[in-house]
Amino acid sequence: MFRAEEIEKRDKSYFNIILAENYDVTIQSKNTGHIWYIHNPE
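RESULT FIELD:
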């Protein structure tokens, strides 16, 4: 499970958060436009 503190630690100048839920986070690079889907099964 992702805590709000972990999500807030991201580099805001480099990433946009597209989606933030308890077990899933989707972020996008502002520089390249690449998108990452991160799933935490714990």
